Amino acid sequence: SWVFWKASGYPAFHDLLMLLLVLALSCNPSTAATASPSAPHIKPSYSFGRTFLGLDKCNACIGTSICKKFFKEEIRFDTWLSSRLKLPPSYLLSYSGNYTDDAKSWRLVDITRLTSKYRHDRADKRICTSLLKTKTCSLERALRRTHRFQKWLRAKRLTPDLVQGLSSPMLRCPSQRLLDRIVRRYAEVPDAGSIYMDHLTDRDKLRLLYTLSVNSHPILLQIFPDVEGWPFPRYLGSCGRLVVSASTRPLRDFYSAVPEVAADLALQLLAVLRSMGTNDLNYFFYFTHVDAGTFGVFSNGHLFIRDASTLGIIDKEEGSQLIDGQQEYKDIFSCLTVDCQSAFVSCNSIREKHSLVMVCQELLPKLLKGKFLQPVQEKIDSFLQHCADGLADDQSLNEAVAKLAELLKPLRSCDSRFAYRYPDCKYSDKY
């Protein structure tokens, strides 16, 4: 055959094969693109910028404990886990994401900023203009020069004078026991466990101070973890100015829920408020503000505190180590997210019924209004009005809450929609 091809003037068999290969590639654009060195295959990927995450602001940031997850694409913003990865707008306050440890099973997470990008930018500008008299600057260099942070650098222990004047409700009435818990449970450092700050570097101290100054939500999730029974979502870590925690749906999504779901959530809400006032550690938690996003519901029906930024804490065991006059101390850390002129609420003015009255005014009516048959609905409405007025003393209000709970218990059902208590509710009077 070789003699035939050669004698006939046809190209050699090898040359013919090469010709056929070239023709085949030219007829298949996708193959040609893959084979061509001028168009290499690029894996779709998030183009993470330090600016989007807030890493360019560190160490005026929360931390870096979960950054590797972002860069390895083990945290994704897209709900459907698409290969066409694309970052969402940077101006949003929170994002829905997916998280994995093994690249096979994914779970929903909430990715949130400490405050809005607008407030962050305004606070950054205020730091530069007030401390260095410039429009832009190194935030870390500016904050390190402050009197407060210099005191932090010298301190061996986090004491009440180091946090006085910060706007976080959690620190308005601080006890030494609470501050020791913050240092001991601080999850952004590897060697947590001691009440002394020897294991914190200068960088760690600035990150902790910045977080406490802007929004104490991630700190509360760390020091009162869900695995110990506290009603908060699990803290998974932070990167720059983003916090990652277990996902919940805001309570507003359930305002139109069927009666049995509404009754169940209302009972859980009352139970959370009760645990905030009475718990094994003798801390009294109170809200300075509640809205439709303060509470959230997990996929198993369990209700948690979704946004802890407005939670104050009073230590019933030790009391507050700050007198009211000390609360009025103000510096740049006091004014990063609030108006410096805003007055603090006195620790002594917080009553036991404080949070319950707000919940009766803002949340329970929207959850329970018009859901049940008479005369049950009338009794519920009457209680809510009585509670919202806030005129009754603490004991009378607690008795009324107990009566409301008894009214709601038989209105909820026992089925798989309430996975947090099912099938236990079939066999236990507790549910």
TrEMBL record:
Localization per Swiss-Prot or TrEMBL: Secreted
Keyword NAD in record: no
Domain of life from the UniProt record: Eukaryota
UniProt main location, coarse: secreted
Keyword annotations of the record: Secreted, Signal
Signal sequence, renumbered to the chain: 1-32
Coiled-coil intervals: none
Domain FAM69 protein-kinase intervals: 209-389
Keyword Signal appears in the UniProt entry: yes
GO cellular component, one term: extracellular region
PANTHER family noted in UniProt: DIVERGENT PROTEIN KINASE DOMAIN 2B (PTHR32073:SF8), GH11358P (PTHR32073)
Family: Belongs to the DIPK family.
Name of the protein in question: Divergent protein kinase domain 2B
